[in-house]
Amino acid sequence: MIIKNIKKIKKICVSYSGGLDTSVAIKWMFDKGIKIFAYYANIDNIKNKKLKEIKNKALKYGAYKFKMFNLKKKIAKEAIKVIKYNAFNVFSGKEKYYNTTPISRFVITKKFVKEMKKDNINIWSDGSTYKGNDIERFYLYSLKINKKIRIYKPWLDKNFIKDVGGGRKEMIKYLKKKNILYSKEKKNYSIDSNILGNTYEGENLENLNSYLSKKHFEYKKKYKNKICSITFKKGVPVMYNNKKIKNIVNFVIEINKIAGGYSIGISDQIENRILGIKSRGVYESPFMELMSILYERLANCIHNEESLNLYRENSYKLGIILYKGMWLSNEAIMIKSMLNVFSKRINGKIKFTFEKNKVKILSTYSKFSLYNKKNISMEKVKNENFNYKDRIGYLNIKKLSLN
After folding, report:
1. Is 386 domain-assigned?
2. In 62-99, which residue ranges form alpha helices assigned H by DSSP?
3. Which pLDDT tens digit goes with each residue over 277-313?
4. Broadest EC class (predicted)?
5. Which of 163, 219, 246, 325 is 20 to 30 Å from 78 by CA-CA measure?
6. What is the domain range of residue 29?
């Protein structure tokens, strides 16, 4: 249920980003006499000093209570599942969008809605706008997790928009009228970040004749010729450079740093938002791209053609489902169940290195591999598994299917 009348709200949970939109929303609701619990998701590599500033800002704008949740581990674990399922979206040539923001929205909502019960709060709010995807993702997940939850969206409230204005300049003026100076951070784009990577939208990217002027991950020659290896067990990376992966968050950060240093995982996409309108985003996801490449390498070695076709067909559907905020839907559960069977055989080790914008595979090993050098060798082979006579018989049968 979406609440349209702010007067009925006594207590509310605001998913606080630390940015201008949710800061203004907190101030506006505080002035209406609402008791505000500001929940903040720590999902990126933010220093403690910055985290304290975010807390102080929420309290300054009128939050009754501030709660911070470290969700980096949960996001990393969910990302591994997404890689197993190959649940990505928006394909342009070889480039993919790895659904990094949809992953975080699911994790954040799941945690916040459950935490709200502990604080005896039944109304949820966030700063997503009516044009974007997040407004629908947060809405669907919150209702799926708690059917009795009520939802208030400031950017769907005409009174809120009337009071604070429709843009960033107007919101800063609104705070100034309230004797609050907003220290505007210099940002070239609207950036959404978590430990999996970054999403850039807005500003000059809204023009299709321009490109991203500044990236987080830049090519660094200092990582030149670094040779790495990753071992998978049942589709999950378990060893990195022959050492057990004990801390999944540190593993993600390390891979992002190294792979990002070779400009791996950068894609520029024109996509269909959930509404059907076109938008443009530039994405950086070094970890996701590397893991996807390695997982697919093993999958191609281990599974036959029919299994791979089913895997790709259904993983594509699942990627769209995740993008649309339906990760908990019945159809998602059905597809995940099938892909879990597929991933159980993804066991093996890959050794690789990097070149600029490229992952170079050095060796691939799996005890389940269907690859057999004897079957495809161009040299004379003893004790062949099949010979030219077998192929003649196969071709004679094949011709029977011709019209």
Report:
1. no
2. 72-85
3. 999 999 999 999 999 999 999 999 999 999 999 999 9
4. ligase
5. 219
6. 6-71+99-177
